[in-house]
Amino acid sequence: MPSTPDATTPDAPAVGATPVVRTERIGTALLITLDRPRARNAVNAAVASQLADAIDELEGDPALRAGVLTGAQGTFSAGMDLKAALAGESPEIPGRGFGGLTEAATSKPLIAAVEGWAMGGGFELALACDLIVAADDARFGLPEVKRGLLAAGGGAVRLPRRIPYHLAMELLLTGEPVSGERAGRLGIANRVVPAGQAAAVALELAELLADNAPLALAAVKRIARTADGTPEPAAFAAQRREMAALAASADVREGMAAFAERRAPVWQGK
């Protein structure tokens, strides 16, 4: 697999052609699979559009509690489809960013299940998720500087906020990939698992998250986004507003009642 910032491909379908993103409901989770294996699951306009639709499916169905994003046939994503981009296609969705995801404000937990290569924009799709499960032999890289570019789909913004500055700059300035095993040591990945197990473990995590109150999960995500780079007084003020809304919800009363009655809560999302 070439360590280019993104992939050139021979098979870039037009938007609305053969599905290139598949969704499958597994319990309360939505498994979202980038499905252009011949193109190493590179992102073109069709992938961006269909991935945005998949996120809408996740967000719009109260029965779905979390999403798992992965790639078909042992590769997460080689990044932007350069050949499609040169032909005039955009891999971005206005207001949602690269792949229809990197700038999207999602309310439900999203877990990246990374096998094989997550390069350039592929790594940035993983960074846009809340949790990352990586195969031990996966490869994460932001090689844009090798082509005179920068990781503009969130890599240069998010990575220095997720791991220590000097370690983030090593990846951003050298453009060299790291293994899934090292990604775990750096704090990029939450779980490092044997090859072929990333999606299964991510779905287990999604099931664990589904035990928790959906309103609370959404509030945690909003506060985490607000607190990132916000002065503490403003962050705490936002948190108080979220807590007030949660305190008035039926789910809080259900959570307290379930605890008192020693039973599992039945969340309503309201």
Quick overview:
The chain is α/β, with parallel strands linked by helices and 270 residues long. Helix content is 40%, strand content 16%. The chain folds into 2 domains: 21-210, 2-enoyl-CoA Hydratase, Chain A, domain 1; 214-261.
What does this structure look like?
Keywords: Lipid metabolism, Lyase. Belongs to the enoyl-CoA hydratase/isomerase family. It holds the Pfam family ECH_1. By secondary structure, this protein is of the alpha/beta class. It has two domains: 21-210, 2-enoyl-CoA Hydratase, Chain A, domain 1 (Alpha-Beta Complex), CATH 3.90.226; 214-261. It is 40% helix and 16% strand. It contains ten helices and eleven strands. The strands form three sheets. A six-stranded mixed beta sheet has the order 1-2-3-6-8-11, sandwiched between helices. A three-stranded mixed beta sheet has the order 7-9-10. Helix 4 packs antiparallel against helix 5 (165-174) and helix 8 runs antiparallel to helix 9 (232-247).
List key phrases describing it:
270 residues; alpha/beta; 2-enoyl-CoA Hydratase, Chain A, domain 1; six-stranded mixed β-sheet; three-stranded mixed β-sheet; 10 helices; 11 strands; disordered N terminus
Which bin fits the share of residues in helices?
Answer: 40-55%
Q: Determine the CATH superfamily of the largest domain.
A: 2-enoyl-CoA Hydratase, Chain A, domain 1
Largest sheet: 6 strands, mixed
What integer is the average pLDDT?
91
Q: CATH topology of the largest domain, anyone?
A: 2-enoyl-CoA Hydratase, Chain A, domain 1
Please identify the structural class as seen in this structure. alpha/beta
Tell me the CATH architecture of the largest domain: Alpha-Beta Complex
H/I helix tally? 10
How many domains is the backbone divided into? 2
Strand order of the largest sheet: 1-2-3-6-8-11
CATH level 1 class label of the largest domain: Alpha Beta
Strand content: 15-25%
Q: What sort of overall outline do the alpha carbons produce when their principal axes are compared?
A: globular
- First-to-last CA distance: 47 Å
The stretches of 5 or more residues where confidence is low (pLDDT under 50) are 1-6, 8-16
Q: Name the helix and strand elements from N-terminus to C-terminus, one letter apiece.
A: EEHEHEEEEHEEHHEHEHHHH
Q: For the CA atoms, what is the radius of gyration?
A: 19 Å
Work out the number of β strands: 11
